[in-house]
Amino acid sequence: MGLRFATPVLGVRDVASAAAFVRDRLGFELRGTWGDPPGFAILRRDGVELFLQTDCERGGAAPKAGEGWSVYFACDDVDGLHAELAGRGAPVLSRPTDQVYHQRELEVGGPEGHVIVFAQSLN
Questions:
Q1: What's the total number of domains in the chain?
Q2: Helices and strands of the chain, counted as H and E runs
Q3: Does residue 2 fall inside a structural domain?
Q4: What is the CB neighbour count within 10 angstroms for residue 65?
Q5: CA separation for the pair 50, 41 (Å, rounded)
Q6: Which of 17, 34, 72, 114 is the most buried (most CB within 10 A)?
Q7: Is 44 contained in some domain?
Q8: CATH of the domain at 109
Q9: pLDDT per residue over 36-70, tens digit each?
Protein backbone atom coordinates (compact mmCIF):
# COMPACT_ATOMS: atom_id res chain seq x y z
CA MET A 1 0.00 0.00 0.00
CA GLY A 2 3.05 2.31 0.04
CA LEU A 3 3.70 5.10 -2.43
CA ARG A 4 6.12 4.16 -5.22
CA PHE A 5 6.84 7.39 -7.10
CA ALA A 6 5.47 10.81 -8.01
CA THR A 7 4.99 12.29 -11.47
CA PRO A 8 5.17 16.06 -11.80
CA VAL A 9 2.47 17.71 -13.91
CA LEU A 10 3.12 21.11 -15.48
CA GLY A 11 0.16 23.25 -16.45
CA VAL A 12 0.81 24.91 -19.81
CA ARG A 13 -1.26 26.79 -22.36
CA ASP A 14 0.24 25.04 -25.44
CA VAL A 15 0.95 21.35 -24.83
CA ALA A 16 2.42 20.71 -28.29
CA SER A 17 4.93 23.56 -28.02
CA ALA A 18 5.83 22.72 -24.41
CA ALA A 19 6.33 19.03 -25.30
CA ALA A 20 8.66 19.99 -28.17
CA PHE A 21 10.65 22.20 -25.77
CA VAL A 22 11.00 19.45 -23.16
CA ARG A 23 11.98 16.94 -25.86
CA ASP A 24 14.45 19.13 -27.75
CA ARG A 25 15.96 21.24 -24.94
CA LEU A 26 15.77 18.89 -21.95
CA GLY A 27 16.31 15.55 -23.70
CA PHE A 28 13.07 13.84 -22.73
CA GLU A 29 11.42 11.28 -25.02
CA LEU A 30 7.87 12.15 -26.07
CA ARG A 31 5.75 9.10 -25.21
CA GLY A 32 2.48 10.49 -26.53
CA THR A 33 0.03 13.35 -26.76
CA TRP A 34 -3.75 13.23 -26.52
CA GLY A 35 -6.40 15.52 -27.98
CA ASP A 36 -6.64 17.73 -31.04
CA PRO A 37 -5.03 20.08 -30.34
CA PRO A 38 -3.11 18.16 -27.67
CA GLY A 39 -4.29 18.81 -24.14
CA PHE A 40 -2.04 16.26 -22.43
CA ALA A 41 1.43 14.81 -23.04
CA ILE A 42 3.68 12.27 -21.36
CA LEU A 43 7.46 12.57 -21.62
CA ARG A 44 10.13 10.32 -20.10
CA ARG A 45 13.85 10.45 -19.45
CA ASP A 46 15.89 7.84 -17.60
CA GLY A 47 12.72 6.20 -16.26
CA VAL A 48 11.34 9.48 -14.87
CA GLU A 49 8.13 10.86 -16.33
CA LEU A 50 6.85 14.40 -16.74
CA PHE A 51 3.25 15.18 -17.66
CA LEU A 52 2.11 18.32 -19.45
CA GLN A 53 -1.52 19.39 -19.24
CA THR A 54 -3.34 22.35 -20.65
CA ASP A 55 -4.23 24.81 -17.94
CA CYS A 56 -6.56 26.91 -20.07
CA GLU A 57 -9.81 25.36 -18.90
CA ARG A 58 -9.05 26.48 -15.35
CA GLY A 59 -7.96 29.94 -16.48
CA GLY A 60 -4.56 29.35 -14.91
CA ALA A 61 -1.18 30.38 -16.18
CA ALA A 62 2.27 28.96 -15.67
CA PRO A 63 4.33 30.71 -13.00
CA LYS A 64 6.88 33.21 -14.22
CA ALA A 65 10.58 32.46 -13.91
CA GLY A 66 11.79 33.58 -10.50
CA GLU A 67 8.50 32.83 -8.71
CA GLY A 68 9.68 29.47 -7.43
CA TRP A 69 10.43 26.01 -8.70
CA SER A 70 7.93 23.98 -10.68
CA VAL A 71 9.78 20.62 -10.67
CA TYR A 72 12.76 19.27 -8.70
CA PHE A 73 14.48 16.23 -10.25
CA ALA A 74 17.21 14.23 -8.50
CA CYS A 75 20.09 13.15 -10.74
CA ASP A 76 23.49 11.45 -10.48
CA ASP A 77 25.72 13.94 -12.34
CA VAL A 78 24.44 17.50 -12.33
CA ASP A 79 27.62 18.87 -13.96
CA GLY A 80 27.38 16.41 -16.84
CA LEU A 81 23.69 17.19 -17.23
CA HIS A 82 24.49 20.91 -17.25
CA ALA A 83 26.92 20.42 -20.13
CA GLU A 84 24.37 18.36 -22.07
CA LEU A 85 21.46 20.75 -21.55
CA ALA A 86 23.54 23.83 -22.35
CA GLY A 87 24.60 22.10 -25.56
CA ARG A 88 20.92 21.54 -26.39
CA GLY A 89 20.24 25.25 -25.96
CA ALA A 90 18.29 24.93 -22.72
CA PRO A 91 17.99 28.27 -20.91
CA VAL A 92 20.29 27.80 -17.89
CA LEU A 93 19.11 30.10 -15.08
CA SER A 94 21.86 29.13 -12.64
CA ARG A 95 24.90 26.95 -13.16
CA PRO A 96 25.46 23.99 -10.80
CA THR A 97 25.85 25.41 -7.31
CA ASP A 98 26.48 23.69 -3.97
CA GLN A 99 23.78 24.49 -1.42
CA VAL A 100 24.03 24.50 2.38
CA TYR A 101 21.46 21.67 2.49
CA HIS A 102 23.91 19.29 0.75
CA GLN A 103 22.54 19.46 -2.79
CA ARG A 104 24.30 20.61 -5.96
CA GLU A 105 21.59 22.28 -8.02
CA LEU A 106 21.13 23.42 -11.61
CA GLU A 107 18.18 25.66 -12.47
CA VAL A 108 16.83 25.59 -16.03
CA GLY A 109 14.06 27.60 -17.61
CA GLY A 110 11.27 25.30 -18.74
CA PRO A 111 8.29 25.80 -21.01
CA GLU A 112 6.09 28.86 -20.43
CA GLY A 113 8.12 30.23 -17.52
CA HIS A 114 8.36 27.09 -15.41
CA VAL A 115 11.62 26.66 -13.47
CA ILE A 116 13.03 23.14 -13.44
CA VAL A 117 15.75 22.13 -10.98
CA PHE A 118 18.10 19.18 -11.37
CA ALA A 119 19.95 18.29 -8.18
CA GLN A 120 22.67 15.91 -7.06
CA SER A 121 23.13 14.90 -3.44
CA LEU A 122 26.48 15.89 -1.95
CA ASN A 123 26.20 13.25 0.79
A1: 1
A2: 2, 8
A3: no
A4: 16
A5: 8
A6: 114
A7: yes
A8: 3.10.180.10
A9: 999 999 999 999 999 999 865 555 555 544 468 99
